[in-house]
Amino acid sequence: MSGASSQLFFFLSTAALPTMLLLTSPKQTISELVLYLLCAAGYVRAARNASGQPKQAIKLNAFELVGNSIGSGQQVFLGTEDKVYIVDKTENNPTQINGHPAWAAEWSASSKQTRPMDVITNTFCAGGSVLGNGTWLNVGGNQAVTYGGDAATSQLGGAPYDDPDGGQSIRMLNPCDDGNCDWFLTAPMTTRRWYPTLETLQDGSVIIAGGCMYGGYVNDAAQNNPTYEFFPSRGQPVLSPILQTTLPINLYPLLWLLPSGKLFVQSGWKTVLLDMDQNVETPLQDMPDAVRVYPASAGSTMLPLTPDNNYTASIMFCGGSNISTEQWTQNWDIPHWPASSSCVQITPDQSPNYVELDALPEGRTMGNLILLPDGRVLCLNGAKTGTAGYGNTTFTIGQSYADQPLLTPLVYDPKAPATERWSLDGFSSSIIPRMYHSSATLLPDGSVFVAGSNPNSDMNITAPYPTEYRIERFYPSYYNQRRPEPQGLPNQLSYGGFYFNISLTLADLFGNVDNVQTAKVIIMRTGFSTHTMNMGMRSVQLQSSFTGNSDGSAVVHVNQLPPNAAIMPPGPALLFVVVNDVPSIGIQVMCGSGKIEEQSMMPVQNLPASNINSQQAGGQKQISGTSFLVHSARNWLVFMMKYVGAVSAILLL
Q1: Dihedral of CA 158/465/77/384: which sign?
Q2: Using CA of residue 318, residue 369, residue 478, residue 510, what is the dihedral sign?
Q3: Is residue 160 a contact partner of residue 152, using CB atoms and an 8 Å limit?
């Protein structure tokens, strides 16, 4: 067959026939079918099946060493299904690239191998996010330095580190799996930004907010950059009142795009909603209990957006430091100040007020909050006392402003009763202190990548808390369960439009078709992890219904993303199918058009009513072992015979 005929054959066999079989309602028309086929063709041709089963972890709720990061993992993000990208500050790392120390790298989840990369300028305390076309940004940083982190004589590069000034840099990366991608520079920002925060917006562009000129433990008026700008550029930076009035603790302000289209901004003790179109800030309640931004460095996350909460955003903050504004200096015993155990939540599109949540079992600063695909929130890394940052004083631990590392993770379950949501039962401790400049990100197999910790001005492997190159993987409680292997997954999602169908076998449903009632389809952005933040991390559950079949299999009917790009901004994300709180292996999908542009919004198609075949409901035969394998093989063979016959009939018409 010709190329066009081959494409038509594939489209008819994978899209047209299943669609015809779904036309069971008299309200559906031929015109609807034609429209569906035209809209679905692009996505169906790229339909995928989830990967199989991951290699079993030796121990659950525990850590495993999985490689060397080359540069300490100050900043990390998942770029492809297999590759994590690591960015450090300029320092004297042992691995060389292009005649100077490497302070960036790419780690492979499948091989556990790491290759050095050249990120060109000094990325110390940069920010990052991903554009709507899948390109990653790394923005801002520090001036060129020499040994010990001191300012270099030349800011244009040269010995010993060849690290040009990165304060205005915009670095870009198109992730790859073939080892041939690397960082490149584009036109710089008009202002310097050290400690900026980024968030991807509805059109796939990025807002870049805050920072300072030349760094320090906290900010000061002489070097404050209380503005925000956009990439691609929309003109000169815009002044932000909250960033003007929250000195000295306004570095790395906490930002989230809300479903309303407004931007939630938290800095110092203040909170506002920013209308980016009008540059109007609406004050919300002051942050209770503790400072959450750097260097207090509380964990923070937007909780999952679901049909049950009508895609309403709630933002959670845990830990940090209850230090008054006047006390943010470097002339007192910072490392022994107790961290806060407070957790609070705000739902800013509905209420201006914070509410108290279950407190942490003990105070924690620099504790990353990582969204898991089963809806829970993992907390790991951090310390019991002190803050982020380092310096050279009589009271520091080496150079660290924190002490008493917390090595045992814990998990927050939003569905558990109040007072019972945090749990550390059954969790094993890491052997590695992970404090200032540590990071973590979710991986497609549902494990968590953990790296970094370096409260030192330059590479130092003999300090009390040394420069850390060891990578760990944390395995949540679901990891060794038999994973669902859904079939028919898309590789791109639109905002609204026609639903798609995912097939689950009896094995995917753990031997009982009734378990399809627990099936959820989750879209997750894993974010850009640095300084206890995962910029852009969010989780969205798609609306779905189901049909349980008489053979114990099922079909999950799944709507596209809600027709509001502020709920899930365009760009790459992971898709998981979760059954009985066990996630499939996530696959990378593109949300939206794959371009930086205003996204098209389409009407949402009504889903079929959920139904389980009455002959099967309540009477599902439990199948396991060899019987199950025979049963599955027989069903697969019957399915393929029907499939080939139906396709042949269509082609002979």
Answers
A1: negative
A2: positive
A3: no
Interacting residues of 83 by C-beta distance below 8 A, sequence separation 6+: 106, 107, 108, 109, 175, 176, 177
Phi, psi of 41 (to 5 degrees): -55, -45
Q: What angle do CA 62, 65, 68 make, to 5 degrees?
A: 150
Cα angle 177, 181, 185; round to 5: 145
Cβ contact 150:91 at 8 Å: no
Residue type, 461: I
pLDDT in tens, 27-67: 334 433 433 443 343 333 346 776 789 999 999 999 999 99
Listed range (47-61, 263-277, 548-562, 634-648) with the worst mean pLDDT: 634-648
Sole residue written with tokens 């300012």: 151
What single letter denotes the amino acid at residue 279? N
Query: pTM (2 decimals)?
Result: 0.89
Residue whose entry in the numeric block shows the structure tokens 């209990």: 289
Whether the Cβ atoms of residue 367 and residue 380 lie closer than 8 Å to each other: yes
Q: Name which of 447, 373, 378, 449 is nearest 409 in CA terms.
A: 378
For 300-346, where are the alpha helices, taking DSSP H only?
none
Quote the CA–CA distance of 371 and 369 in Å, as a whole number: 7
pLDDT number for residue 50: 67
In whole angstroms, give the CA distance from residue 402 to residue 339: 10
Dig out the tokens for 405 from the structure.
Answer: 């590392």
Q: What SS3 class is residue 96?
A: strand
C-alpha pair distances (Å), 612 with each of 212, 545, 620? 59, 11, 11
DSSP codes, 226-257: -EEEEES--SS-EE-HHHHHSTTS-SS-EEEE
Is the Cβ–Cβ distance between 5 and 13 less than 8 Å?
A: no
533: CB partners within 8 A, 6+ apart: 197, 252, 254, 300, 527
Rounded to whole angstroms, how far apart are CA atoms 88 and 416? 38
Cβ distance 397 to 333 under 8 Å? no
DSSP assignments along 415-461, one per residue: TSPTT--EE-TTPPPPSS---TTEEEEE-TTS-EEEEE---SSS--S
Cα–Cα distance, 140 to 144 (Å, whole number): 12
> Residue 188, class by beta-carbon neighbours within 10 Å (0-12 exposed, 13-18 middle, 19+ buried)?
middle
DSSP H/E element including 355: strand 354-356
Q: Which of 493, 476, 518, 489 is nearest to 576 (CA)?
A: 489
Q: What gap in Å lies between CA 422 and CA 410, rounded to an integer?
A: 7
Q: Look up residue 227 and give its two tokens.
A: 């503005």
Name the DSSP letter for residue 393.
Answer: S
Other Cβ atoms less than 10 A from the Cβ of 646: the count is: 17
Residue 61 DSSP SS3: coil
Residue with tokens 């330095």: 145
Strands 197-200 and 184-186: unpaired
